[in-house]
Design brief:
By secondary structure, the chain is α/β, with parallel strands linked by helices. The chain contains 18 helices and eleven strands. Strands 2-1-3-11-6 form a five-stranded mixed beta sheet. It has a four-stranded mixed beta sheet with strand order 8-9-7-10, sandwiched between helices. Strands 4-5 form a two-stranded antiparallel sheet. Strand 4 and strand 5 form a beta hairpin. InterPro entries: Bact_solute-bd_prot1, SBP, TAT_signal.
């Protein structure tokens, strides 16, 4: 199962354009050895029934009819479409029908704002971006506390990779469970790097090779990547971490004015300014990805989840020459992000929180994660990443790249604040200056002062 070409509005480049509910029987290519049995899932349900009730917010009064469906609100994404194929299995286990509404990212955010502000009970399971929305949802009391639930031994919470697991916790409460993870990959042209001995191992190598391979006058570029002010921040984060910086310091103040951050700004700016395509400051995923897919760039750093675009002959000319490599090491080593791009949680106002939790258990169980990862959807459980059979859907070089980046990964790719969009806009300003060839230091200093003020205001909002 390949991951779909990216569309606008996607956090990680995986959303589909069309919306709608996908139902049906499990796909014939699923791993028989990982099928969830009634007995194994029954044990989980018994354990869940004995766990303390969710405490974030008491469910609304009234008992739902046995005929009422369990309602899942989700992003229109390959994970959502894949899991929906197995709904009959879950419905048979739980004795209740499942109804899933799939929306674009913007539609999903708008629906949550409208419905949850009104304490709506017509959502039971919520698909969310832990790094984009969870702080806001937690402050508003919209997500049920799953802490006691996940800590039951039957759930195997420790099996989740540390970085995505840590990002599921807000104010010492587990509010979501990661179901899709994402890291950056270094995509490269194997035919162009043969003379260099292979893919670059360090950021210094990446810059030197990109500059040497660039022939900009003839439409050939050494490097392509996101350059749009706010949109580039998530991919730039790995360059920041690998230079030894972060968005914030240990005391919670701005980190984007540090020497490490300025060096990362200057590095990324030079990479695109001297080796990248014209108009890079207007490029998001949708503009940068086709340049590499059409063979016009030697290197490209972006989400590993979009790899199938380069293997699709309908849009790619590099399917025979594309290579995959871990994120190159900077002064602080190789420190890519490893994030939960999408997670699932329980609506604090749901009247079916036990059934909603049963769905979360089932959808994020070791068996289901292994099953979906074997179909090409990267999950968050370490057991799946340690099983060669679950990695068979990925090209071997990519599977190893993903595994290494996950081991070295940092659990965020953007500032961890309530107003994420505003924070990304501030942090992205020096990126644009560097790409335009301007002096980065004074722009970074100004952005640092603005970000300090922003963090002070945003942190006050986080006191809940």
């Amino acid at each position: 199962m390949s991951l779909i070409r990216p569309t606008s509005g996607s956090a990680g480049g995986l959303d589909r354009v069309t919306a709608g509910l996908t139902t049906g029987s499990p796909t014939s290519g699923s791993l028989a050895s990982t099928a969830l049995s009634r007995r194994s899932f029954g044990k989980l349900l018994v354990a869940a029934a004995g766990t303390a009730a969710l405490t974030a917010c008491a469910p609304r009064s009234g008992t739902p009819s046995p005929d009422a469906p369990l309602r899942v609100m989700a992003i229109n994404h390959v994970w959502s479409q894949a899991i929906s194929a197995y709904f009959p299995e879950f419905e048979d286990m739980i004795g209740r029908r499942v109804s899933m509404q799939m929306l674009t990212a913007d539609q999903l955010s708008n629906s949550y704002n409208v419905k949850l502000n009104a304490s709506a009970t017509d959502i039971d399971v919520m698909m969310v971006r832990a790094l984009q929305e969870q702080l806001l949802f937690a402050r508003n009391g919209w997500m049920a506390d799953l802490t006691d639930r996940v800590e039951d031994s039957a759930f195997e919470w420790d099996d989740f990779q540390e970085a995505p697991r840590d990002r599921s916790v807000t104010r010492d409460k587990v509010l979501s469970v990661p179901v899709v993870t994402e890291r950056p990959a270094l995509y490269y042209r194997k035919d162009l790097v043969e003379g260099f001995g292979g893919a670059p191992q360090t950021l210094d190598d990446l810059l030197a090779m990109s500059l040497e391979l660039a022939d900009r006058d003839n439409g050939q570029f050494g490097f392509v990547g996101r350059g749009q002010r706010a949109g580039a921040v998530s991919q730039w984060s790995s360059f920041l971490f690998s230079h030894g910086g972060d968005f914030t310091l240990a005391d919670g103040s701005s980190g984007i004015g540090t020497p490490e951050a300025v060096a990362a700004y200057e590095y990324y700016g030079r990479l695109l300014h001297e080796a990248g395509p014209p108009g890079a400051t207007n490029m998001s995923l949708e503009q940068a990805m086709p340049i590499f897919a059409q063979g016009k760039a030697a290197f490209y750093v972006d989400a590993d989840a979009i790899y199938s675009n380069f293997l699709d002959p309908s849009i790619s000319t590099v399917q025979e020459t594309v290579g995959f490599a871990p994120f190159p090491a900077g002064p602080a080593g190789s420190k890519p992000h490893n994030i939960p791009s999408w997670s699932i949680g329980v609506n604090a106002f749901s009247r079916m929180q036990d059934d909603a939790w049963a769905f979360v258990q089932w959808a994020s169980s070791p068996e289901m994660v292994a099953r979906l990862q074997a179909e090409g959807i990267p999950g968050a459980r370490q057991s799946a990443w340690s099983d060669p059979e679950t990695l068979a859907a990925f090209p071997p070089e990519l599977a190893e790249t993903m595994r290494i980046n996950a081991e070295n990964g940092i659990g965020h790719d953007r500032p961890e604040v309530i107003q994420v969009g505003r924070a990304r806009d501030i942090v992205g300003r020096p990126l644009v200056a560097g790409i335009l060839g301007e002096d980065v230091a004074p722009v970074a200093a100004d952005a640092d002062a603005e970000f300090r003020d922003f963090l002070d205001r945003d942190n006050r909002q986080q006191e809940f």
